[in-house]
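Extended Data, panel c. Modelled sequence:
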Amino acid sequence: MSAIDGGRKRVKLDDVARAAGLSLATVSRALGGYSDIALGTRERVARLAEEMGYRPSSRAQSLASGGRSGLARCAVVSLGSDPEQLTRSLFSGVLLSGMAARAAAERMDLHLVSLAQEPAAWGRALAALHAADRADGLLLLTFLGLEPEHVASLEDAGVPYVLVNRHFGERPVHCVTVDYGGANERLAQHLVGLGHRRMALLAPADDSSTVSDHLRGWRRGLERCGIDEADAPIVRFRGPHHEAGYAWGERLLRAGLPGGGGRPTAIVGFNDFVAHGVLRAAAQMGVAVPDALSVVGFNNLVARYTSPPLCSHEFHLPEVGAAAVSLLAAVMRGEVQEATRRTIEPAFVCRGSCGPAPA
């Protein structure tokens, strides 16, 4: 199977549905031979599909019919990292465990594909992956920015895919995300409620949808509280997160907020690793946490092991992974017709690193 057949765009199931004037689910069930679809309809859809050149995946058909003849193949595609980086990441490890647990119930055979190329080559790499017939559907993971042009070849070929922990903003796409924006908005309000008026959010200097959601939510929270962003700025960094947390924590505690705003009483890290770096800087400088400085992280991966234990946010990563597998299975069965975004709500876990602002 290849993305391009005779120079023509591959016919997708929704193309057949549109031509037949039927819903995607009805066409899927008609081609699957379901008895609840009238025989005449089944025959008409089959003829139309053949005339249009629609060729469904045999494994996807097995998934749709609940058959036992085979499993649908699902490639969990890691973009921009090699297998060692992916398996070493606590984030991805927990996420993959949730996917694996759900895959059996959805009769899907998961396999991991690592595409370590730079983003500029992702489009070609995904096209080659599809042309090699490596999967009936794909779950796309990346820590970097993902853009619509990267998945254009999958769109053209009608290959089902779901973005995991990424989205395309206002452009509809099948995806499962964490509500980082809402979590940051609530956190900003929580800190202001504790009396903090000089704060900082430390975030990576990249354009991923995750980072954008963090920033958007933080700004919304400040606006709701009437806090000027100059008093609670977003500080962008590059490089390893733990090192950046330490370097910027030391700089902010020593020199104060950018623009001479004084030393912050609260610093929020993009994740636990950034926040842990801030904790180390505060300890070295003799700044007591949380009496003189509140520190908050995100992802709750190492928060309980720091000193003091970090306040953080639990993302429910196994749920994210399981939801992504379920969404892809529903798309492949024809049960989901419109681009769907499923959102997991994180939970704030308060421990020992956050408290009232110092007098």
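The longest helix spans residues 209-225. This feature is highlighted in the accompanying rendering.
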